[in-house]
Amino acid sequence: MRGSVPNLQRRTVYCPAGKKVLGGAEARGNDAILVGSFPTDDGTGWIGLGRQTTTDSVGISVFAICADA
Question: CA-CA distance, 47 to 39, in Å (whole number)?
Fold first, then answer.
């Protein structure tokens, strides 16, 4: 999932059914900082959040690396 969101707003992406998440996330752009990158509570997706120091929104891409459960 890609796109700009307000600073510190979470973006979440999920694995296909029957898969568990192993890792993921990144922030993009000038002065973009990845603030958080962690699995969902149930282990089926990945959450990313970031911020940009010069604007009120950040370009963030969240990827989930998934494997068989």
Answer: 6
Whether residue 1 is predicted with pLDDT greater than 90 in this model: the reply is no
Q: How many Cα atoms sit within 13 Å of 23 on the Cβ side?
A: 1
Q: What is the pTM of this model?
A: 0.84
Neighbours of 1 (CB within 10 A): 14
Strand partners, 57: 6
Sheet order of strands, 45-52 included: 11-14, 45-52, 32-39
CA 5 – CA 15 distance, rounded (Å): 21
